[in-house]
Design goal:
By secondary structure, this protein is an all-beta fold. The protein has one domain: 7 Propeller (Methylamine Dehydrogenase, Chain H), CATH 2.130.10. The chain has 1 helix and 31 strands.
Length: 371
């Protein structure tokens, strides 16, 4: 049962939405896991290890906290800024790719994968839902990974990009026109011939590149060494601007006092976004491109929202989560599309639970002000 755990002077009210012992998490935060109209959000609850469809996807309504299951499937899933959620499930020797409209509740199978299909991380969709992209492992002797593209209109599935160092690609479609997929490049990662990863990233650090759709042309971005400190691996598109928001290591000219949040355009222009005094880790943006949300990778994990243009930001609340190795102890905050709700993880109750902070309109209005 949901319960209020904190009421702040700013008017922010923090609710712990879940409290049962089942393992659960707020899913990755680059896009809001919400319906288009901000009526509710999705979180994942893991089932028994022996279940081939080991994840329950639950839709929870903001404010009332009424919850219903919308599907049960495998771990990797995805969402669009229009609030179209999709996931995979095992079904009689194949994997069904299921599309769920979070507004209407309509659910249907849109594609079928082989039973042994195993993408690297979540699947990302183009804004028109014609294309779906994800990373795959092509082999480990020699090591090679790829970006695969499904074209629902043409009925094709093909590798459009390969590289031995995209073991953790974090693929994200540009959300406005779908011209590119962003790919995280973990330079210096290493694997044994059996596929065991021995190093996630080397001393040169991670960077990003773009893959154009559908031809697979690569555009390198001037982030990571030698242009900036290595990226943390957390980034999100700013809708409508052909620009990516990301955090870099808090070093060199991006130390804590100056801020380690930057934005880079598809043409390679880098600008500072800042948030001085916050060591930004996870990054998310809203569908209208106006707001971002981040967490502080120190102390009590302050959760911050800000404007992508005004340079103003504010601390909403503190996650008070341990930030230990499991992902469900990381805040992963994201804003609902209307910027009225901030969803995040916290294990402060003793184990990871889903929390939501309500945000008064006065807080977001102040952030947008350039006075």
């Amino acid at each position: 049962m949901a319960k209020i755990v904190e009421e702040l002077d700013s008017g922010v009210v923090v609710t712990q939405v879940t409290e049962d012992t089942c393992p659960k998490e707020n899913i990755y935060c680059e896009l809001p896991w919400c319906d288009k109209y901000s009526h509710g959000f999705v979180y994942r609850q893991r089932t028994d290890d022996g279940d081939p469809n080991g994840s329950r996807y639950l839709y929870c309504k903001f404010g009332t906290w009424e919850t219903e299951e919308i599907g049960q499937g495998l771990g990797s899933c995805g969402i669009t800024f229009e609030g179209i959620f999709f996931y995979r499930r095992v079904a009689e020797g194949r994997q069904e790719f299921v599309r769920v409209n979070l507004t209407s509740g309509e659910s249907r199978v849109i594609y079928e994968f082989p039973e042994d299909f195993a993408p690297k991380g979540n699947i990302t969709a183009s804004p028109d839902e014609r294309y779906y992209a994800y990373g795959v492992a092509l082999g480990f002797d020699p090591v090679m990974f790829g970006i695969e593209l499904v074209d629902l209109q043409a009925g094709t599935r093909e590798i459009i990009n390969t590289d031995p160092e995209i073991c953790n690609p974090h693929t994200q479609f540009e959300p406005t026109h779908g011209k590119w997929v962003m790919v995280q490049h973990n330079r210096g990662c290493a694997h044994l011939p059996d596929g065991t990863r021995t190093r996630l990233v080397g001393p040169e650090g991670a960077t990003e590149y773009l893959v154009s759709i559908p031809d697979g042309e690569v555009t390198r971005l001037p982030v990571g060494t030698p242009d900036t400190p290595g990226i943390t691996g957390h980034e999100a598109w700013i809708a409508g601007k052909d620009e990516i928001l990301m955090s870099v290591r808090a070093s060199d000219d991006y130390v804590l006092e100056k801020g380690n949040l930057i934005a880079v355009t598809a043409t390679g222009v880098v600008r500072r976004v800042g948030v001085a005094g916050i060591q930004v880790n996870h990054v998310g943006t809203t569908p209208d491109g106006r707001f971002f949300s981040v967490d502080d990778w120190r102390g009590t994990s302050k959760l911050v929202i800000g404007s992508t243009t005004s340079g103003r930001s504010t601390v909403v609340c503190e996650a008070r989560t341990s930030m230990s190795k499991p992902q469900d102890t990381h805040g992963h905050p994201y804003l609902s599309p209307d910027a009225r709700w901030l969803v995040y993880n916290s294990d402060s109750p003793g184990q990871p639970q889903i929390h939501v902070a309500s945000i008064p309109a006065s807080v977001t209005s102040d952030i947008l002000s350039e006075d």
